[in-house]
Amino acid sequence: MLTNDLHSESVQNKLRITLNKEANFLISLLQFRTSIKFNQTLIAGLLSILLAACVPGESTRPDQADEINRITEEAALALVAAKQKIEDDIFAINPDDYAEEPIANIWDRVRDGFNIADTTDNARLEAELNWYKRHQKYLDRVVDRAEPFLHYVLNEAEKRKLPTELVLLPIVESAYQTFAYSHGRASGIWQFIPSTGRIYGLKQNWWYDGRRDVHASTQAALKYLENLNREFKGNWLHALAAYNSGSGTVRRAIRNNKRRGKPTDFWSLKLPKETQAYVPKLLALKRLIANPEAYGITLNCIEDTPHFETVDIGSQLDLAMAADLAHIELDQLYQLNPGFNHWATAPYGPHRLLIPVDHAEIFKQNLAKIPKAQRIKWKRHKIKEGQTLSHIADRYGVSVGSLKRINNLRSHTIRAGKHLVIPVSSRKLSDYNLTAYQRKKTLQNIRRKGHKITHIVRPGDTFWDLSRTYKVNSRSIARWNGMAIKDPLRSGQKLVIWTKAPNSRIASRGANTIQHISYRVRNGESLYLIAQKFNVSISDLKRWNSFSSKYLQPGQKIKLYVDVTRQTGKG
Question: What is the C-alpha separation between 275 and 82, in angstroms, rounded?
């Protein structure tokens, strides 16, 4: 009996130990506060196994069975409690477990890549720093405009192992305005002039201007900066100055200082006024971004993720159709692809579009369903009497070159009654708000001070002539019409001019007093005498006429555009 009792006590102790161990094991799981979530089915299975192990066997005596049942019941209650705690604690939603990863801020990467020497405290630099510190709203606007492009520009700079200060250069150049156009005919966020753009492979034609293409111009600008840095033997301040004013200007300034025994660092060079402020602006931005708190400004966070994907489209594509395929607004598509001047991509490329990254896949899927021949709509136009290729091209928003190429025309000559095949837009041309034409129209319609006059350009007109006629600044006329002062004026072109004088007075003086004259040269007359006679300049006479010789011949006919109100009647 004693043996049986001992045996019974031994069994009970073993059961208690075993059950307690298992219960404690389950409870100890609660102490592992990791992101791993326990499977409730697994917990239930463990409990079932433990409870099944405690069921009395056939060889167990009744008194032992009662004790085992009692112990089992206690253990089961402990295990149920443990299970409940697991469910309440481990499987409960814990905000800490679901906390989002901190957003990576691209400004951290930009700071990490700063590598241009900046140890000089200069009055010009301090002036730029103070300006930025006072203009928080300007910085906010610039950061907003830079947001879609900064990740791409930074990646490209890092690929070339260039200092990341260069991603700030478009702020100095254009404030990251994709459609920026300067008085010096510079265009895009990197402000390429036409000649430099062509040198670095940026196409410029009726359909497309690569200087505004963020993808292409960024590649070209960084390559240009690399070349300038090599030319100036690793001196980035000289290279940046050359990017603004040309390498020849900087080299001459360095040679002049050497001859005079002066230092040749950037701060000591005699450079154009704009260039003297250009480099300090970039260095001031660098300091602000390196430590914004120290200067009392804030930088809006820009996520360190791609904002667009470059998609190969393989052919010309109507941009309104592209926007529909990508499920985005047409204006958003133009903002990402400002290189396209009109309603479609260029016939001869580039055949690519920048598409918002979260719309790129659906765009590619939808585009693949449309044959290349159906990506542009076509119309058969019957030529009417008096129509020219130029008039027809303007009507449909295409280039004369495109009409000639598509219809196999060798010249501009067309005949009434014949037909032309013409590519046409899928929407009204006025719906394409950010084409070159619509942007200029919007600019010309901005209300300004004074009286608005629409001037129709006549042969021989120049901005300088118009400024004298309407008593306004020639650069203002160019700016009001989205042009640069060096842009040529075309006969028939409409210009908007705002003047202080009443419309009637200006109109009578400006629009009706300039007359075209065909003048026959008399014996003994020279360009000087004729210029004096008609109150015009010799340079205008040369511009209006293509003289084959510097000497005039009696009887020779020349063209003049004269202001009848300025003629004395003499001679």
Answer: 75
CA nearest to 313, candidates 262, 280, 347: 347
> What is the DSSP track for 218-253?
HHHHHHHHHHHHHHTTT-HHHHHHHHHH-HHHHHHH
Looking up tokens 């510079």 gives 186
Closest C-alpha to 178, from 217, 140, 208: 217
Nearest Cα to Cα of residue 433 among 360, 342, 499: 342
329-341 residue pLDDT tens: 999 999 999 999 9
Q: Which residues of 395-415 are buried (b: 16+ CB within 10 A; e: fewer)?
A: ebbbbbebbbeeeeeeeeebe
Structure token digits, residue 553: 């011949």
Tell me the angle at which helices 214-231 and 136-159 cross, rounded to the nearest 10 degrees: 70
Q: Which amino acid is at 464?
A: W
CA dist 279 and 239 (Å) reads 10
8 A C-beta contact, residue 107 and residue 302: yes
How many other C-beta atoms are found inside a 10 Å radius of the C-beta of residue 304? 16
Q: Label residue 545 left, alpha or beta by phi (over 0 means left) and psi (-120 to 50 means alpha).
A: beta
Mean pLDDT of 365-372: 97
**Secondary structure element (H or E) that encloses residue 495, with its range:** strand 494-499
Contacts 24+ apart (CB under 8 A), 458-465: 458/491, 458/514, 458/516, 458/561, 459/491, 459/516, 459/544, 459/559, 459/561, 460/516, 460/540, 460/543, 460/544, 460/559, 460/561, 461/489, 461/561, 462/489, 462/543, 463/489, 465/540
Contacts of 63 (CB under 8 A, 6+ apart): 8
Our answer to whether residue 173 is catalytic in this structure is yes
533-553, pLDDT tens digit by residue? 887 778 778 877 877 776 788
> In whole angstroms, how far apart are CA 229 and each of 224, 280, 283?
9, 17, 17
CA dist 502 and 508 (Å) reads 10
Tell me if 343 sits within 8 A of 382, measured CB to CB.
no
Q: Coil, helix or strand for 352?
A: strand
Q: What percent of the chain has pLDDT over 90?
A: 59
Q: Which residue has the higher pLDDT, 238 or 94?
A: 238
Q: What is the pTM of this model?
A: 0.71
223, 200 Cβ separation under 8 angstroms:
yes
Q: Does 299 score more than 80 pLDDT? A: yes
Return the sign of the alpha-carbon dihedral for residues 560, 563, 565, 567: negative
For residue 49, how many C-alpha atoms fall within 13 Å in the half-sphere facing its CB? 9
Tokens representing 114?
A: 């700063």
Q: What is the pLDDT of residue 336?
A: 98
Per-residue tokens: 501: 């004088």
Among residues 526, 555, 564, the alpha carbon closest in space to that of 542 is found at 526
Under the banding of pLDDT at 50, 70 and 90, the label for residue 523 is confident
- Which of the given ranges, 475-489, 491-505, 532-546, has the highest pLDDT on average? 475-489
Among 22, 67, 128, 173, the active-site one is 173
Tokens coding 137? 């709203």
> Would you say 91 and 38 are in contact if contact means Cβ atoms under 8 Å apart?
yes
Q: 184, 484 in Cβ contact below 8 A?
A: yes
